[in-house]
Amino acid sequence: MSLRLPLCMFFISLIWVVPVQADDTFAKKLAQAAIERTAHEISYDGRYFKIPYPGGDIPAHLGVCTDVIIRTYRALGIDLQKEVHEDMKAHFNAYPKLWGLKSTDTNIDHRRVPNLQAFFTRKGQSLPVTQNPADYKTGDLVTWNLKTIGSLPHIGIVTDRRSRDGLRPLIVHNIGAGTTLEDMLFSYTITGHYRYAPQGE
Fold first, then answer.
1. How far is the C-alpha of 88 from the C-alpha of 19, rounded, in Å?
2. Are the C-beta atoms of 146 and 152 separated by less than 8 Å?
3. Which CATH architecture has domain 21-195?
4. 62 pLDDT above the threshold of 60
5. Backbone angles phi, psi at 69, to 5 degrees
């Protein structure tokens, strides 16, 4: 007994001291960048803007839900304007034709939720849509339909922050009142669940 107890405690101590590098993961960094976006005062504005390419952005004080995603990834050095455009240009038929376009448009393509859904499906992972909050991991992307009749697509980022009851992850999104961190994962009909990190991340 005298030999077994210290040996057991030794193995337990090894387990306890193994560092967990969660803060260094891409998903954690993405969530942190999303939360940082809530510090910016943003007026909701979905107008069409002519912007530079690549690295283009609409005026910094304006934005919609997709701009939260774009700016969050840009903070980590990933330009979704460029990534979406290049994939859409090479595989135009794989993207929705909801706007009557016959070619790509670097000013707006990446700012449309259905296009981001197609891109994340093609270049990342399309994950199951469930009603289990544990399935939605830090850094995941979720899309919703805000309307009970018709379609009004929306997108946000899952964070590591939790709801008051600890059951649900909080979401960073912009639904009209600026970029906010809210307990709204199941407030609307979920239409998509994605995970996107560039290769090597």
1. 41
2. yes
3. Alpha-Beta Complex (3.90)
4. yes
5. -65, -45
Query: Mean pLDDT, the chain, as a whole number?
Result: 90
Please state whether beta strands 169-174 and 153-162 pair in parallel, antiparallel, or not at all (unpaired): antiparallel
Closest CA to 180 of 167, 171, 189, 169: 171
Q: Say whether pLDDT at 15 is over 50.
A: no
Token readout for 168 is 């649900």
- Is residue 166 left, alpha or beta, with left meaning phi > 0 and alpha meaning psi from -120 to 50? left
- Which of the four pLDDT bands, split at 50, 70 and 90, describes residue 16? very low
Q: Could you tell me where the DSSP H helices lie in 18-152?
A: 26-37, 65-75, 80-90, 113-123
Is the pLDDT confidence value at 140 over 70? yes
CB 142 within 8 A of CB 136: yes
How far apart CA 113 and CA 71 sit, in angstroms, is 14
pLDDT at 6: 39
Residues 6+ apart with CB under 8 A from 143: 113, 116, 117, 153, 154, 155, 190, 191, 192, 193, 194
* CA of residue 166 relative to chain centroid, distance: 21
* Mean pLDDT, rounded, for 112-127: 98
